[in-house]
Amino acid sequence: MNNPDRLIIFDTTLRDGEQSPGASMTRDEKIRIAKALEKMRVDVIEAGFPIASPGDFEAVQAVARTIRDSTICGLARALEGDIDRAGEALKEANSGRIHTFIATSPIHMEQKLRMTPDQVVEQAVWAVKRARNYTDDVEFSAEDAGRSDIDFLCRIFEQAIDAGATTINVPDTVGYNLPDQFGATIRTLMERIPNADKAVFSVHCHNDLGLASANSLAAVRNGARQVECTINGLGERAGNAALEEVVMAVRTRRDLFECDTGLDTTQIVNCSRLVASITGFPVQPNKAIVGANAFAHEAGIHQDGVLKSRETYEIMRAEDVGWSHNRMVLGKHSGRNAFRARLEELDIVFDSEEELNAAFRRFKDLADKKHEVFDDDLLALVNDAGFSAENERIKLVSMKVCSETGETPDATVVLTVDGEERSAHAQGGGPVDAAFKAIEAILQTGSVLELYSVNSITSGTDAQGEVTVRVQKEGKIVNGQGADTDIVIASAKAYVNALNRLLQEQRAHPQQGNV
């Protein structure tokens, strides 16, 4: 079953990536990302944790109905309700997988599960067998395998394979391992487990020590043939192994890796932008592969070398991961067809002509404010639409802000709340603070602002500012985004967007699913 020439890419952006506080995605947003992953030819898409909430169940079910070319996976603890719920969510998948797990480290078994090793093995075997009632494609994970006893891992994995598991996942759940150590663990497991040839060995590494990608690659060099990863390295705490790093390392260093993926790597940058815009987690400029500076050269000696021969300072081509020098620039004279065509190239397709027309009107408004509209502007513009009209309880009608040297800034804000117009005036330490206080005076949500971040979408003084805010209330954490050439208006849009999300029924992040 383990094809030594093929490395399976298992993307868990929609599940583990969503466990980043504030990265919760709607069903429609999950479908958009899943379609982008399918276009990239990702082998397995872990769509969510169906037992976590009705919303998560519906999202997994919707992705399973929509995606035809990738295997759709649902996560389930080794519990009857979890497994049955995952099986139900995946019923209409063209290719479905149930991923069941139980903790195996001494600290987890003793302190969290309060189970003996024998009980854990028995529960794991039972869970795999129950999952096989729904699909022949069953993955078993030993949570916190990175801190588990190697003899116990051999025992539980052997029995899980005998019970019908076709993929065995070895997670470094808390990012504790070092590459040499983790690679040796994978090699030892595959050598010592008698039936290891009947399953694909997989790894799922967290980035607490900044080693997730390195540990994943060490595992691949020692026989693992599936890597679980996320776009942009998104994930809880410090994140997961970044898909783009793992894939391009294997592709670039074919002299060291005896396998390759089947991904269309030219889709990486577009997928990275989509995930960043939906989650509100921007990509740092110096991020490998997908950062704005990843293929930029400022030092004169580097520029001179690249001009003479690209290979002097570039180990891969920018075009191979989706960076393009042929970027169409739109402006106020651009027509509707050019607008539609460019959005389709960016994998943005509207469900109706009405949605397209509304987006085109927003584009024209933006084009009146700035001379050139770039790809990143378009992505922000589409994302700035936020919620569909029926879900948008709060709307920003107008705002007037006064900021003057030596005077306390003040803001007057007018909102509609469930169709009723309300206004408030407030002062603050700055214009944004005043605007936020005026909005809170109207809504009285009692929420706490935990993050305020501003990024320039493109260059120039007429660039749009993209604002991300994170608000928290009673353990519920949501992000909001807004974009505008006026940074104060962008801030108000982002805050209103977050409060709209807060007022919706949100699921709690399933942190118990800490694989």
UniProtKB/TrEMBL annotation:
It comes from the Bacteria. Pathway: Amino-acid biosynthesis; L-leucine biosynthesis; L-leucine from 3-methyl-2-oxobutanoate: step 1/4. One of its GO terms (molecular function) is 2-isopropylmalate synthase activity. Its cofactor is Mn(2+). Pfam families: HCS_D2 (PF22617), HMGL-like (PF00682), LeuA_dimer (PF08502). PROSITE patterns: AIPM_HOMOCIT_SYNTH_1, AIPM_HOMOCIT_SYNTH_2, PYR_CT. It is an enzyme of class 2 (transferase). It catalyses: 3-methyl-2-oxobutanoate + acetyl-CoA + H2O = (2S)-2-isopropylmalate + CoA + H(+). Its EC number is 2.3.3.13. One of its GO terms (cellular component) is cytosol. Belongs to the alpha-IPM synthase/homocitrate synthase family. LeuA type 1 subfamily. NCBIfam families: leuA_bact (TIGR00973), PRK00915.1-3 (NF002086), PRK00915.1-4 (NF002087). This is 2-isopropylmalate synthase. It comes from Sedimenticola thiotaurini. The gene is leuA.
